[in-house]
Sequence to fold (303 residues):
Amino acid sequence: MVGFAKYVSAALLCVQSFVSCVDPQAVYDGGIKGNKGPIKLRIGNGGAGQSGLIKVLADEFIKYEVKKGAKPFRVAWYLSDTTVSINYLQAGTVDVGFTYSEVAEKIAIKQGVAVSRHYAWRDHFLLVGPKANPANISSSLDILTIFSNIYKAAQNNKVTDPVQTRFLSRYDKSATNIKESQMWIGIGQVPWATAYSTWYHSYIAFPVQALKAAILLDEYTITDRGTYLSIDPSLAKQTVIYKAATDSSSDPLLNPAFLLIGKKATNLGTVNSFKKWVVDKKLGQKAIIAFKKSGKQLYSGAP
Fold:
């Protein structure tokens, strides 16, 4: 664990100039007509932003605060995975991040980048892959056995195979990449190391784009439920979920999201109000649980 913590700590290092002048992916106004108020909250996140949850949380929080008497304001979302979100906190680019790595979050607090972390919701990692299933895996197997079977099948790929066994990695220090790396290390393999494994596809992209690529290329990959339910249903039908996380805290595929508050956060009153709103069972938690795509709930609330 010490070695892995050092790996995550190294991943948090960044050049400040690369992250200090970033434009937000979107700015939300709570649906309030004519709202040109100041941006009083800046949020860093990847998958939940792409799924639409960040927009829902931002809009509902703005409406809640205005109803209480606050002047209309806006919330900005910055597209970023866990590592980049923490880098943005360090640079003061964002005030808070919704992140997915306990180790990285605790290191950020220890290093003075963040001041606190708060359980926000539970997302769920999925192991998906081609319908042809060249690695012959099934949901009855535990996740490490599944990775072992993928490795063995990939090592024995033949040019004559109708569909070869390949694995797509986001390879970007995201929580998904870290989780996938833990699985490979768990079976004693590091396919990204020298000599590089030709079946290991390094594809640096955000969640939706990476999943689309894996599906179109007939590759196995780790994604999350929120991302899977956010892509076009016709595309989702072209892949198979071979293993899915449960809500159990001991499930290795559970993907908990924590609200991480940066030390350089501005508008601390708004930041603290947002923290309290997110964790409140009748407010933020209610909005998270109610969020659906195609009639399906994407996230579980915090335990």
